Prior knowledge:
2 helices; 4-stranded mixed β-sheet; single chain; Signal recognition particle alu RNA binding heterodimer, srp9/1
Amino acid sequence: xxxxxxxxxxxxxxxxxxxxxxxxxxxxxxxxxxxxxxxxxxxxxxxxxxxxxxxxxxxxxxxxxxxxxxxxxxxxxxxxxxxxxxxxxxxxxxxxxxxxxxxxxxxxxxxxxxxxxxxxxxxxxxxxxxxxxxxxxxxxxxxxxxxxxxxxxxxx
Length: 156
């Protein structure tokens, strides 16, 4: 079987620079890629062929995986209004899950950076992947300024 590694999730946003700045401020992630890109009409299927865009990718600790990208169309072919005051996720929507070693330190940075906090740091438990044990978590959840839902977990 071939190797298939999930490397990055990219979100379409109205301002790639501002989106990247939020995650840099909250999590300390650094820019891996920051360039203008001519986007193919099928990757993703959203705009005319060779549409001008700005793509920013941030990396966490691993140099090849665990990245997040923000793609901004410079002449967007769709409405770029950001949903405000979101409180629920929708069908088909991504959930960005971040593991941290200090969720209580992330919380005030997220508030200061403009996140819509859904749940402040809360302790809870879930079954392990095989159901043989329990995983203790301290978790907060939020929508970022672009309406992207994030769950931030600290294993206890």
